[in-house]
Amino acid sequence: MRNFQRSMIAGLVIIVAACDQNSRQPAANMTTEVGVKTLQTESVPLDNQLAGRVTGSMTSDVRPQVDGIIQKRLFIEGDDVKAGQVLYQIDPASYQASYDQAAAQLKNAQALVKSSKLKAERYAALVKENGVSRQDADDAQATYQQNVASVDQYRASVESARINLNYTQIKAPISGRIGISSVTPGALVTASQTTALATIRALDPIYVDLTQSSVQLLKLKRQQASLQQLSDAVPVTVNLEDGTAFEHPGKLELTEVSVDEATDSVTLRAIFPNPQHELLPGMYVRATVTNGVNSDAILAPQQGITRDANGNASALVVDNDSKVESRNVVVDRVVGNKWLITSGLNRGDRLIVEGTAKVQPGERVNAVEVTPDNKAATREDK
Fold first, then answer.
1. Is 84 left (phi over 0), alpha (psi -120 to 50) or beta?
2. Which of 16, 43, 184, 340 could potentially form a cystine with 332 if both were Cys, beta carbons 3.0 to 4.6 Å apart?
């Protein structure tokens, strides 16, 4: 009886061991399933985001050039004015009198020239006949020359008086929108005053001055040299302070030729059409500068890129033998919800975007193509 029990127990142990071995055999042969994204090259416009301030394309302070009392203000504050438009009228009475006096003196000098010329000619004829002395003839000729010079002098005085009289009409030096007037009729103004009567700013077109570090500028220039350019002009767009996009695109006009030593930055100037005067001088804006198009860009989903404690980026890919391979990669920037890869990944690489925590380099896996946006998966051949 005991032998029978021992035989039964031994048989059960063998059966259990066999079952356990059979149950473990499939597990040993199972491979981990990971989601991958097969990378492709794309055409990607590369942009830089910069902060800037709006400034008028032309700005001019309106100042008097003669002294006097303001009689009239001939514009409405905040209106558009044209170059040459009369803005203020200074009392012209004293300047008109000076002009009239200079004109009269000119006429008198011209009359003296005529009479002294005739006298000089007569004396020149008489001196040949000894009718007058040589000294008298020379004096007559000298008087004539002096009167000719006096005419030129008085003619210059008339021109000066005319200029001052014209300056009593203070005109707009440029076309643009005029601001608030600092004086009213009855105010005394002087040619040497430091306070402007008003300021005119040209608003269409208008400038946006952008600030960029010198290091970024060097990177930008190298990048532009290697990218496909959309046109000779570098396109620029701006967002207003409330976040809305300004509807008119602009272009990069120039780059300052020196670096600000205090901030180590460079100013870039963009020019924009501004027909509705939506952009106003002093506004803060965010600008997007399009450097060019990278026609062979590799964009990797962000969930497929990891970083170590030192900030170095790496990725796991599935090779042709369905084994996991680790790659060190270099990322340039975020484009949408993806990383722009400059080295480490190539077209056709199967980047692991799901299940990276479950696998190790060298491990064989079952790769399933997924779309990271909607997680829709289609099984592919190993």
1. left
2. 340
